[in-house]
Amino acid sequence: MRISEALRALVFEPDPDEELHHTLDRYYASDYTHRSDGRVLSREEFAHMVAVVRRQVTKDEVTVLDEL
Predict the structure, then answer these.
(1) Are the CB atoms for 3 and 67 separated by under 8 Å?
(2) Pick from 63, 55, 50, 46: which is nearest to 2 by CA?
(3) What pLDDT is recorded for position 65?
(4) Pairing of β 34-36 and β 39-41
(5) Are 20 and 50 in contact (CB under 8 A)?
(6) How far apart are CA 68 and CA 63, in angstroms?
(7) Is residue 54 within 8 Å of residue 11, measured between CB atoms?
(8) pTM value?
(9) Phi and psi of 42, rounded to 5°?
């Protein structure tokens, strides 16, 4: 799995027939926490953030230069 695949599936090219929590299950562990700008989000809070971003993004692209 690559982070670019997860971003495409979650935000940039989501499958309209798949519920968000199914997509999250495919790419993220059940105990996943998201850290951004010094703030830690639970998986539930992360899912809410992704849902908001999905409504705001109409089209975009991601390029990952390096992954660990």
Answers:
(1) yes
(2) 63
(3) 81
(4) antiparallel
(5) yes
(6) 15
(7) yes
(8) 0.79
(9) -70, 170
CA distance 54 to 27: 16
Residue 13: predicted pLDDT: 86
Residue pair 21/47 in contact by the 8 Å Cβ criterion: yes
Residue bearing tokens 């996943």 = 32
- pLDDT for the residue numbered 4: 84
Q: Tokens 């908001």 sit at which residue?
A: 52
For the chain, give the mean pLDDT: 89
Q: Are 62 and 2 in contact (CB under 8 A)?
A: no
Structure tokens belonging to residue 42: 């639970």
The answer, yes or no, to whether residue 66 has pLDDT greater than 90, is no
